[in-house]
Amino acid sequence: MTTFVLHKSDSRGVADHGWLQSRHTFSFAGYHDPSRMHFGVLRVLNDDVVIGGMGFGRHPHDNMEIISIPLEGDLEHQDSMGNTAVIRHGDIQVMSAGTGIFHSEKNKNRDQPVKFLQIWIFPNERNVPPRYDQITLAPEDRHNRLQQVLSPKPEDEGVWIHQDAWFHLGRFEKGCTTEYSLKKEGNGVYAFMISGSAMIAGQQVDSRDGLGLWDIQSLSLGALSDMEVLLMEVPMELG
Asked: Of the candidates 85, 112, 136, which is a domain's last residue?
């Protein structure tokens, strides 16, 4: 029997820093809920909006796989490895913090906000050399289908991380259906509805809701409206 947890959008933690509006699916910073610490190795899922010209100052990370997915606007990145880059909608950014890295992120533009998802994954290998990568994918390649944007293998489509995880983005018209088969036994799937509504494994998931599923081999997805979804397949066991 499928086991699931549904996190409605209005149940998320809220952080209002003026320049930053953030919604935390899992415990983060000032938001702490013992029942919402992580989903398997998925540790952080933040839905961030940064006003024009503002951003996160230089700060450290270690032993975490950090993925940023821009939804609107331009996000500028700088890090201690010498990387300076701008990521936009259609781009996927990954940073393996490993033994330690400093970085900063800010809104490249002063006249519009930047909206992005920031995701942290516990790695399956600690103290690896820090690594940065970003790629641009064609949004049309996820029209009425699931487009792989992340995997454990450098040679696969999308970016890669130090974990047996696979991410897919899909943008579906109302009435379209698809199936997703898990890549690895024992993994679960966390679905984050970016926009619209869908039935996923028999559960209605609306805009900015999250649905975690485990003890499954596959799941069905049916669009109740035009919608966009991020599916994150991750190991359920830590360590």
From this structure: 136
Task: Please tell me the distance from the alpha carbon of residue 163 to that of residue 186, in angstroms, as a whole number.
Answer: 14
Whether 104 maps to a domain, the answer reads yes
CATH code (residue 169): 2.60.120.10
For 63-103, the pLDDT digits (tens) are 999 999 999 999 999 999 999 999 999 999 999 999 999 99
DSSP 176-193: -EEEEE-SSTTEEEEEEE
Amino acid identity for residue 201 in this structure: A
Nearest Cα neighbor of 163 from 104, 235, 110 is 235
Check if the beta carbon of residue 215 is closer than 8 Å to that of residue 10.
no
> Among 95, 119, 136, where does a domain finish?
136
Its domain, for residue 58, covers 12-136
C-alpha distances (whole Å) from 135 to each of 43, 86, 233 are 23, 11, 20
For residue range 14-53, what is the model confidence (pLDDT) as tens digits?
A: 999 999 999 999 999 999 999 999 999 999 999 999 999 9
What's the whole-model pTM score? 0.97
- How many folded domains does the chain comprise? 2
pLDDT at 2 over 90: no
